[in-house]
Amino acid sequence: MPGTSEPGGVWARIPVTLRAVLSGTAMVIVAANVWPPLLFKLGMPLAACAEILFLACFVFWASGGGPPRRLRVLRRDRFRVRAITGKEWLWGIAAAVAFAATIHAAIVVLFRMVPYPTAIFHRGYDFSFIPARSMQWAACIVSALSAAICEETGFRGTMQQPIELRHGPTIGILISSAMFTLVHLNKSWAMIGMVPIVFGAGLLLGALAHASGTLIFGIIGHTVMDIGLFAYWWTQIVGTFAERPISESGMDQAFGIECAALGLLLAATLISIARLRKLRVLA
Questions:
Q1: Tag placement on the chain: N or C end, fewer CB within 10 Å?
Q2: Which of 111, 77, 269, 94 lies closest to 189, judged by CA?
């Protein structure tokens, strides 16, 4: 069918899964690395304007616009373009917000069990060269939006979607989550305790993309999560985590509340994802 074929030649002879991993990873690495040089070369707010323009063009192309024409339908399918009902928007937003809160709750619980390495988390995320606090916040928001759009398009779209079609959603989600984790292992904050949290985030985002049939809710949830990560855990422009680990404070009431909150938020995320899946099946 015209417009749906993969590129031919040697590329077509590579197994689908390997093609998906290579193309998805390349898309993430190339697209996500436009923002840092813009920020350091142009400064705020010009860099933010340039990045938003780039992201708009990137989404237009990834969702099926622009050349090459024969791959437009393929790109549209990879981006999971579909109509979304009002009920799906309701449950999708719920899933996105609950997901973001779950990841932050998991980090809180982690750093109640081990000391929070403030300097390590701050390394590479120093926004002090941006003089105005409002511009620091803007940089955090654009950084989060950039990571969310590029990573969801690459991992949950270009990579996961074709693997789902060939091997089923479980394999697709596991592979995209493993690659999502692997790409983040070079970060200064990627200590051993953070690895299962990153992998878990990948699983939830992969499940959300498959259940909803769209990348929109994953992009929203990823953006909300990353705004908090950039502003609080990494750049620390709104303060830093100061709670003591339970090895020092003991099993206090706060730790019990934090663990309960993590469980409830995770349950809310999974219920919302399941509801989205049901709505999609009934549509």
A1: N
A2: 111
Percent of the chain with pLDDT over 90: 94
pLDDT in tens, 155-177: 999 999 999 999 999 999 999 99
The answer, yes or no, to whether residue 247 has pLDDT greater than 70, is yes
Radius of gyration of the chain from Cα atoms? 19
Spatial contact of 207 and 237, defined as CB atoms under 8 Å apart: no
Q: Mean pLDDT across the stretch 250-276?
A: 97
Q: Which of 25, 27, 29, 24 is nearest to 58 (CA)?
A: 27
Give residue limits of the domains in the chain: 10-282
Contact by Cβ (8 Å): 160, 206: yes
The CA-atom distances, in angstroms, between 65 and each of 76, 96, 152 are 8, 26, 18
CB atoms within 10 A of CB 189: 18
* Pair 25, 159: CB distance under 8 Å: yes
pLDDT, position 8: 65
Q: Are 154 and 177 in contact (CB under 8 A)?
A: no
